[in-house]
Amino acid sequence: MQFQQLQYFVAVAETRHFTRAADLVHVAQPSLSQQIKALERELGADLFLRARGNITLTDAGEALLPLARRILADADTARHEVQELVQLRQGRVRLGATPSVCTGLLPDVLRAFHDRYPGIQLLIEEGGSHDLVRELARGALDLALVVLPLPTPSPALTTVELLREDLVVVSSPEASRPGGGRRTVRIADLEGERLVMFRHGYDLRELTVAACRAEGFEPDFAVEGGEMDAVLGFVRAGLGVAVVPRMVAARAGRGLRVTPLARPGLHRTIALAHRSDVAPPRAARELQRMLLER
């Protein structure tokens, strides 16, 4: 049973005329009649009683008509839903990002994307780069914003560098200024400072600790184990200083003193990653474009 045959059958049932039905579905009348006969042979029953000038449905035709209409209606609904998705009126994007990227980079981009495509559902998962890479690999995410270099490089992932971001030192305005009041702070100036440190597995933790060790000292933690919001809150409370991305510091608002790091400073590279073997869905590709063009 072919979809086209059901279309022809419903057209004849509704017009009760083979020629008018052929005009309705834009096909030659002999072709329509042949397809109806082929459908009857497949079903093993006549669908129409054909008398001169009078076409009526048989019992088999009466039984088939509501089913055929439902099949055609479902197909029309499916076509419209796919077209809606293609035109970005519906759908979803599953995006993973590190917490600091969620705080600094994503709000403006996601707002612009939502304004343009309000019917697209945005599902955001926060996590470290290692966790996000794992979620990408198992198909739980469409895209992920990760910090390069990846802890475990994978040929199964495609990464595109998005931005290179400076890191800065944040402290409480009431506390003494790190580095003795200079406009910039060297990594060496953090020796003896009490640091508010992120949890294990956090990209910023690994970067900061490695930079301190490269200067020949072990960082001294006042408190450790927090996520981005907790770390900023602890710094505001005067528990210590922290090294955070410049965009995060700019969004953090009042209650923080921001001091740049002296050259060469510290930087991190944010990349957009997706699976190499599967193209992201249309909506995810559009978000990818907006991130790359931001």
From TrEMBL:
This is LysR family transcriptional regulator. SUPFAM superfamilies: Periplasmic binding protein-like II (SSF53850), Winged helix' DNA-binding domain (SSF46785). Residues 1-58 form the HTH lysR-type domain. GO terms for molecular function: DNA binding; DNA-binding transcription factor activity. InterPro entries: LysR_HTH_N, LysR_subst-bd, WH-like_DNA-bd_sf, WH_DNA-bd_sf. It comes from the Bacteria. GO terms for cellular component: protein-DNA complex. Belongs to the LysR transcriptional regulatory family. Keywords: DNA-binding, Transcription, Transcription regulation.
